[in-house]
Design goal:
3 strands; globular
Length: 133
């Protein structure tokens, strides 16, 4: 598991180092499953959940919300995709942060915009395109 500084580095890269506050929580499969079922009505654990804050106050750092990453799921996905765990985890941090900033991937055009942004951020961090084999 990367250090808190590394997680922060990835998160800040996703928001262009804007002074923002976010909680990144790494969880196991049982907790990931519970959170996904409770807040997204999903089955089982998922790789990343984002919970944007609805607080509209002018303070620094700006509170963006919470990113919850299920390391068990990320590890399995990384193995299945032939990626290093750290590479895939960095992608999930960036992905979660972009959700907090309003990006989404429900519609194809939204997904293209979000994936393009992920590619740019991950490239700057020294990671390859997460969407190519």
């Amino acid at each position: 598991i990367p250090t808190a500084d590394r997680l922060e580095h990835w998160a800040r890269a996703a928001v262009d180092d804007v002074d923002a506050s976010v909680c990144i929580r790494l969880v196991d499969r049982p907790e990931g499953t519970e959170l996904n079922q409770t807040y997204r009505a999903g089955e089982g654990a998922t790789n990343v959940l984002s919970f944007a804050t609805d607080i509209d106050i002018d303070i620094d750092p700006k509170p963006l919300g919470d990113v919850v990453i299920c390391c068990d799921v990320v590890r399995v996905e990384a193995d299945e995709q032939g990626k290093a765990f750290e590479q895939h985890l960095a992608h999930m941090v960036v992905h979660g942060m972009l959700h907090l900033c309003g990006y989404d991937h429900i519609k194809d055009d939204e997904a293209q915009v979000m994936e393009a942004r992920e590619r740019v951020v991950l490239s700057r961090l020294g990671y390859p395109d997460p969407y190519t084999g």
